[in-house]
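ESCALATION

Customer reports they have been waiting on this structure for their group meeting. Please prioritize. Original submission:
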Amino acid sequence: MFLTFREEVEDALLAALSSLDLPTDDLGIETPPEGVDAVLASSAAFRLAGEVGAPPPKIAADIADEIDVDGYDHIAAAVGQGPYVNFLPSRAYYDETVETAQDDEYGRLEPTGESVVVEHTSANPTGPVHVGRARNPITGDAIARILDFAGNDVDRHYYVNDAGRQIAVFTWAYETFDEEDLPSPERERADYDLVRYYRKGNAYLEEADPGDVDEAETEIASILQGLEEHDEATYERISEVVDTVLSGMCVTLDRLPAEFDEFVKETRFMFDGSTDDVVSRLKETEHAVYENEAWQLDLSEFGFEKNLVFLRSDGTSLYTTRDLAHHEWKLDNYDRAVTVVGEDHKLQADQLAQALEILGNDTDKLTTFHFSWVNLPEGGMSTRKGTGVDMDDLLDEAEKRAREEVENRMDDRIRDDDLTQADIDRIARQVGIGAVRYDIISKQPTKTITFEWERALDFEAQSAPYVQYVHARCCGIIDEAGGEIPAEIDPSILDSESEEELIEVIARFPHVIEEAAEDLEPHAVATYTREFAETFNTFYRECPVLTAEDENVRDARLALVAAARHTIANALGVIGIEAPESM
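Update from on-call: job pushed to the front of the queue and completed.
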């Protein structure tokens, strides 16, 4: 209803401003601050003050007087308040919101007809996923879910770096060292098994005699050169390592969960000739220079101090060169391309976008989403040195702590639905992993955060368990009512302040999705779920459902609880957090 209400507000403002012979290019529609009894407001009077030569409150009052709400279904009144025109909702706004939100898919927007590819995670397949980059799969997956829920046709891609020096080192190490030369793996899984070779290889290159290192470097260089020459045997060698490690990494990513439609390999754009094509075209541009034994793009004209190297003197391409071919492929096949990368890749991403533009691509279709790091109080992480905190360890600890919290709260549970050990394990997984995910998504992505257990798993504070508990409570109420929502209700009965405030929050959900998709802000959905939980808890305290004063009120409130359940389940779902039915 919010989106329909906004359309009516836009129409009313356009008509009023036109009638007053005032400009209509900026309607100034915004959400009023908390405490204002309105769903939307217009600040157009501020903009018009200089042109009209009157104070904003006078202009706002004139606009409000010019609006006839009789022609609108969902606007009850337009009221001037200071420099604003406030728009109040009609009874139909509330009633239709309750009815519309009975749909399991409530909040999903109409199809846009646009195809979007979201590339995220894309961690080098050199070992287990570690905590420092947890924001990439968690935030990237949430962005893809939000874009999908907003009506887009979304593909989720993991770009596999299988052609760089790290993979060549890994392949050489895997083929060189024996199992008995390695420590025991930390877990019985492919990525933990093979990462031992990678770490051994890097240590060898740092510590071995120079002559032995030179011999190893020659073999590593031959692997890289084999890929450049499209040698299938070399590709099979590196693929054995890459695919094996990636299979293990995917087990961790599935736990989050982070879903992918396709794993797109870097070598694809070498073997199909598109990287060579990019190199040829870049050489022909006016920005190409050959300096320091390498082909480069001089981007100083565009404000970059550092050149972009795209071909080494030995004829081998670089990651960025291959990524240019990759991005051209994305721009050719999708209406929009979103790439989720760490803040340390900002310069590279900006240079890549500029190079794509030089090559004649429409970079307006490209969006790069940057995120900062996640730290644990224990300190820094490095997969190469083997000192990192693995994501699996974090998720195991999250489930363990959540299980302890659930078991400690067993005696205080109101619902009489005896939980089995399997139920407790399920809830521990939903709450524990939800806590990790929520704590990361809820923060501004550009801010470095330190993950804290006490905050993330606090059932009473603004955390995942706090929000998840609202869904569980809704399910409990509906279960106690027999699991059925009455088909015929009178939503106009829901006229108390706490009931109307809950309906207003429910009505706003599609708008939250719309804005989060437009601005790529998954944290805005997390903020909404906290506000929703607070509003629902007020309703729960003040409006008895199953013990309501009469049957009509009971049925209407039960329908409102069902609407709340659908809303919070979908809000949690679009940021990838499960909504437990019991806790």
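Sent to customer with the following note: The longest helix spans residues 232-255.
Escalation resolved.
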